[in-house]
C-alpha cells in the first residue's frame, strides 16, 4: 500500500497546496451552482391526469423522502452511499432549469427523475451499475425501461453532461488530505463505531482522527436529505461546518487550529452558526443515522434540539419511511405518496 503523504499545518502550506480546493470552489459557484427552486412560482397550475387524479406538486418533503429512498437502495445494492449527494445534485440542478422545472408539477415525474439520476450516477461512480430494466421494476410497472433511459438522456442533455458535482463529501475529503485537524497528543484509545473507510484517508490513522471522519460523514449524509443544506448552503460550507461540529464533539476547539482559520478565510464563511444549528437539527431528528455517532455529536456540542418542534408534515414524512437495507421500498411512488396530507 502506498504511504499517505503527510499533511502539514496551515502555516507550512503554500498556494500550490490549495489549488484543488480553489478549483472546486470555482466549480461550486459556476458549473454546479445551487438554486432555490422551491422559492420560484410553478410554471403552470397543477394539471389533472387522464384518469382524473390531480398531479400533486413536489415539495421539500418529497425530496427528503426520495433522498432517503436512494440511500436505502444504495445500501441494498452495496453501493457507496456517498453517491446520493451526486444523485440529488443532478436532480436539483435539472429541476432548476426551465425545461426541468415542469416535473415539479408531478410527483410521478419527479420520482422518475430521481430514479433515472440514480441509474445515471451509478454508471459513472460505481464499478457495477443496475440495468435500466431493474430500475424500472422498482416502480412496479409505473415506469418502463424506455422511460428510465429517456429521462436519463433528458437530464444529461439539460445538464450538458456535468454530472460530477462538488459535494460536501468531496470537500471534506480534500480538507482531510491537505490539513491536520487533530493536534499531536490529542489521540486516545477510545473509538466510536467501526471505521473501515480508507477512501477518506489513505493510511492507518489514530482513533481520534477516525472518529473525526465518522462524525463528519454522519452529518453530511443527513444534510443530503435536507433541502436547505443541499440547495441553500454551499457544499464547501457544509463540509467545513461539519468538520467544526465534529472537532467540538471531540473536545478540540476549531478556532484554535490554523487549518480551520485558513479554510474559513478561503471559504468566506459568514453563516457558520446557522449551518451548524441546521446540521445538528437534521442529526437530532433523523431516524436513520447511527445513534452512537449522533448522540455523541449532540451531547458533546451541548445542543438540545427537540423533535417536538417539527411541523406536522415533517413528522409525517419522517414516520413514513424506514431506511433499512432489509426493507428497501419496492416503489418510490409508494413512499412519496405517504407524505401527502
Q: Could you characterize what this model shows?
A:
The protein has helices spanning 19-29, 60-76, 83-95, 107-125, 132-137, 145-158, 168-178, 207-224, 227-231, 235-249, 258-267, 272-285, 291-300, 312-319, 332-337. The protein is mainly alpha-helical. The N and C termini lie far apart (54 Å).
Q: How many discrete domains?
A: 2
- What is the CA–CA distance across the termini? 54 Å
- Quickly give the structural class: mainly alpha
Sequence of secondary-structure elements: HHHHHHHHHHHHHHH
Mean pLDDT across the residues is 79
Strand content: under 5%
Tell me, briefly, the overall form: elongated
Largest sheet: none
Can you count the helices?
15
Percent range of helical residues: 40-55%
Oligomer: single chain
Q: Rg to the nearest angstrom?
A: 20 Å
Amino acid at each position: 500500500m502506498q504511504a499517505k503523504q503527510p499533511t502539514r499545518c496551515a502555516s507550512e502550506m503554500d498556494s500550490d497546496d490549495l489549488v484543488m480546493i480553489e478549483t472546486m470552489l470555482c466549480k461550486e459557484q459556476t458549473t454546479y451552482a445551487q438554486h432555490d427552486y422551491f422559492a420560484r412560482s410553478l410554471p403552470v397550475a397543477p394539471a389533472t391526469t387522464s384518469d382524473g387524479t390531480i398531479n400533486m406538486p413536489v415539495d421539500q418533503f418529497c425530496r427528503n423522502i426520495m433522498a432517503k429512498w436512494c440511500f436505502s437502495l444504495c445500501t441494498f445494492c452495496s453501493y457507496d452511499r456517498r453517491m446520493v449527494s451526486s444523485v440529488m445534485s443532478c436532480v436539483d440542478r435539472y429541476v432548476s432549469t426551465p425545461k426541468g422545472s415542469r416535473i415539479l408539477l408531478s410527483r410521478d415525474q419527479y420520482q422518475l427523475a430521481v430514479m433515472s439520476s440514480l441509474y445515471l450516477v451509478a454508471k459513472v461512480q460505481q464499478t457495477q451499475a443496475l440495468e435500466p430494466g431493474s430500475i424500472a421494476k422498482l416502480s412496479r410497472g409505473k415506469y418502463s425501461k424506455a422511460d428510465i433511459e429517456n429521462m436519463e438522456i433528458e437530464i444529461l442533455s439539460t445538464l450538458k453532461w456535468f454530472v460530477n458535482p462538488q459535494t460536501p463529501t468531496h470537500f471534506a475529503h480534500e480538507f482531510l488530505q491537505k490539513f491536520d485537524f487533530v493536534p499531536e497528543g490529542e489521540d486516545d484509545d477510545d473509538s466510536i463505531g467501526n471505521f473501515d473507510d480508507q477512501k477518506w484517508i489513505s493510511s492507518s490513522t489514530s482513533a481520534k482522527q477516525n472518529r473525526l471522519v465518522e462524525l463528519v460523514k454522519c452529518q453530511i449524509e443527513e444534510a443530503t436529505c435536507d433541502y436547505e443544506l443541499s440547495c441553500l448552503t454551499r457544499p464547501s460550507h457544509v463540509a467545513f461546518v461539519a468538520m467544526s461540529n465534529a472537532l467540538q464533539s471531540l473536545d478540540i476547539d476549531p478556532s484554535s487550529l490554523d487549518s480551520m482559520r485558513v479554510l474559513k478565510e478561503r471559504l468566506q464563511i459568514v453563516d457558520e452558526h446557522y449551518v451548524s444549528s441546521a446540521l445538528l437539527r437534521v442529526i437530532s431528528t433523523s431516524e436513520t443515522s447511527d445513534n452512537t455517532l449522533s448522540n455523541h455529536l449532540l451531547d458533546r456540542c451541548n445542543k438540545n434540539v427537540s423533535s417536538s418542534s417539527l411541523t406536522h408534515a415533517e413528522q409525517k414524512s419522517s414516520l413514513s419511511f424506514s431506511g433499512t437495507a432489509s426493507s428497501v421500498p419496492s416503489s418510490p411512488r409508494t413512499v412519496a405518496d405517504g407524505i401527502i396530507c
